[in-house]
Protein: Large ribosomal subunit protein uL24
Organism: Kineothrix alysoides
Amino acid sequence: MSTVKIKKGDTVKVIAGKDNGKEGKVVLVDAKNGKVLVEGVNMITKHTKPSAGNQNGGIVQKEAPIDLSNVMYVHKGKTTRIGIQRTADDKRPGKTKAVRVAKSTGEVID
């Protein structure tokens, strides 16, 4: 599998599935299984038993992971693919570092 170009804290848009068109912030990235957890997307109801942490138990709404291929990075309000580019490292002369680049504009993301 290729490298995961979406990171925790990125804003993404769902491009496939029941939540198509929704936007949210990435809460968790599971690179091994190719899944992401996005705030307010793919909500499920979970029935919980009473426990020390949750005295009453009951029905809880929470996000479930969705496949990485079903989300797209949002850059300046528009969805775009992400590329990797090597640039000179200011802190280490003669060395390069990899940075993420928006394919649509060519701007460095981080």
Remarks:
- Strands lie at 11-14, 23-30, 35-38, 43-48, 58-63, 66-67, 71-75, 78-80, 82-88, 96-102.
- The longest strand covers residues 23-30.
- The chain has a mean pLDDT of 91.
- DSSP finds no helices and ten strands in the chain.
